[in-house]
Amino acid sequence: MAAGILDPLRAVAAEAKRVRISGVESFRVRVPSGAVFHASRVHTDAGVTGTSFVPCAEDVLQHYVKPVLLGEDLFAIDRHMARLQAFRGESGVQSWSGIEHALWDAAGRIAGRPVAQLLGGTRDRLRVYRTTVWPWQKPPAAGSPPLESDQADVPYETQAAFAVKLKQNGITAMKVRAWRPHPMDDVDMVGVVRAAVGPDFKIMLDRTAVRPGWVWDYPTALRVCRGLEKHGAYWLEEPFDGHDVQGPARLAAEVEILITGGELAKSTYEFLDFLVHRTYDVLQPDTRICGGILAARKISILAEAFGVPCIQHGTSSLALAGYIQAGCAMSNCEWQEIIGTPVLPQEDWAPARVLVRTPDVYRIENGHILLPEFPGLGLDLNEDAIREYRVRG
Fold first, then answer.
1. What are the pLDDT digits (tens) for 235-261?
2. With left for phi above 0 and alpha for psi between -120 and 50, is residue 34 left, alpha or beta?
């Protein structure tokens, strides 16, 4: 009787073992709007192809990824990532994340299930927060300005007006940079935004560690947090250097506003260090930088053991697919960050619509981005369009 019950399972397992990786590639797709997307692909001898829109550099593909993956079992994803790390080292994990996402896409397509469900799916939607970056409104002054806009030339009222637009469209949270040269100016900005959106809208601030070109000292960070608390801000992200485990922990223990971070960390050991030192109230792995979907899932489990939320750092457009799948597999992930300019997310990913067969790339309902029902990473790709717009050479 037991043998009879197990026979179908053995047949399925035997069939799965026959799926081998037959090819890997990375290429660009330029759509009619002029937008360029970087695709990574894994081909199998079962005729199923996995695709992600997270890039993989050609030299990494040729020298590391192909020697490790070609001819190997598609489903041994954890083993493949360990071998790649052994060859190149921990610092390179983000280099092959696009291929890791594509491996999961192929596995999900063969299984006929979304990747989130293969990883133990916890939810079918995530609350959206829109990270909004305004480009320079005027050319930077002469000298050595940051490469990216510090938002100093963006009127507070402009940021408040966009927050209102998000709220009117059902999105209940916005994150903006805290990069202004005079830190308390960002506190004043939050006051203007809060007055415009009311008490229930979440306002997050992102200091982004060293990217503004200078790091706050502790008194500055404390003063900013006290000001943000008065305006009901939700969190402050990476107020110090990203490798500082003590400074954020001290700040988090002293203030009520959440202190978050971790987007640049590349290993579970770094996140374990954050957890042991209570560095952040919320961990924010980036599902590309940390090494891929499975790595982000492992980090979320580690954080869960410490009772800490794990809310992924985000991205935009087609590259977001793997992040949604990872987040929906995490019991301690409530939000999905969607990064872009001051337009609605649906407007931001409009250029990508030509590459999918669904009416929209993703669905947002009542402020939540929904887990796509299509298997794998959830993108129902228009292969004819990909062939037509693929950049040759």
1. 999 999 988 999 999 999 999 999 999
2. left
